[in-house]
Amino acid sequence: MAWLDGNKIAWVYTDEFGTEYLVRATKSITDQVNGESDPLVGGVATSATTYDVLSKTISRMRAVKCIASGQPDKWVPVYAADAPLLTPGTSINLNAGTDSHAYTSTNKKRGEAYVKHPAIAQTT
Questions:
Q1: What percent of the chain has pLDDT above 90?
Q2: Which residues of 47-57 are buried (b: 16+ CB within 10 A; e: fewer)?
Q3: Residue-level pLDDT at 33
Q4: What 3-state class would DSSP assign to 38?
Q5: Rounded CA gap, 17 and 102, in Å?
Q6: pTM over 0.90
Q7: For residues 104 and 90, is the Cβ–Cβ distance under 8 A?
């Protein structure tokens, strides 16, 4: 398959508490949809600037495999808790080497992680 374009777009990420954040996503990945026209990775495109920027959270991810062409496993960001890619066996096309290949989602996932910042002590 042909190499997928790496252009970025503004996208909405919804965390596990339902808070929406503005993130930068790869358009050729967010354009891939299931039979109901839902983006495989969840989320929605936006032009709004009213969202907070995702900075204190490491987003959820899903592991995908490409057995047919022997490519290494990859981790794909998932922008909503109900994204179709979270269902094991869902196919998505990703770049590997000099081409794009069909990958299949697995049951391996990385959940959200919140960055811990050191406490600030005030002296008087």
A1: 52
A2: eeeebeebeeb
A3: 97
A4: coil
A5: 32
A6: no
A7: yes
